[in-house]
Amino acid sequence: DTGVSQDPRHKITKRGQNVTFRCDPISEHNRLYWYRQTLGQGPEFLTYFQNEAQLEKSRLLSDRFSAERPKGSFSTLEIQRTEQGDSAMYLCASSLAHGDTQYFGPGTRLTVL
Amino acid sequence: AQKITQTQPGMFVQEKEAVTLDCTYDTSDPSYGLFWYKQPSSGEMIFLIYQGSYDQQNATEGRYSLNFQKARKSANLVISASQLGDSAMYFCAITAGNNRKLIWGLGTSLAVNP
Fold first, then answer.
1. Are B35 and A33 inside 8 Å of each other by CB?
2. What angle is formed at CA B106 by the lines to CA B44 and CA A86, rounded to 5 degrees?
3. Higher-confidence residue: A72 or B21?
4. What is the pLDDT of residues A68-89, one digit of tens each?
5. CB contacts, 8 Å: A89 with chain B
């Protein structure tokens, strides 16, 4: 049984560039969550999917951010025109639809120069 | 809305001793879940223990136990027989509502001394 995986683990980009992150959840999990964590803070909710449907987006998710989960399997999070304030750890988690426990991947650490 | 408060920015414990990490919460939802996660320096969030709001008994998972006091809205984590590998950030979190998104505290940094 493989856990949640994320790719890449680290990304360094220049301001203004677009970046895309991928998350592969645990195979039988219907729900997939994205969180963002900045230094010294707890994670903050960004968005979540149940199967392929994106059911909620946080106000933190500006129009430069978009997330997809085609076919209800893996998910991608894209940030367009990156800004230095986007530098953070992006965490993906998955859970069963009627279960509470979310299991996390290793995260993608984004640095915007 | 839900809120988590962790009042201990940093804690020290001697190896093999027990330590309690504090967590208080606030929610108006009668059905909620409380979680503790461990985050080592690598950044991965590792699930430790879960307590449901209707659970009658305190949750235990190996060396981890959750001291759940519903009337006081507290959910403290107790780590027994601390090990050097327990040195990490520890986060308390709560879920409620249909979306079950996690609301997190600021975390407690635990250092285990040899």
1. no
2. 65
3. B21
4. 999 889 999 999 999 999 999 9
5. 43
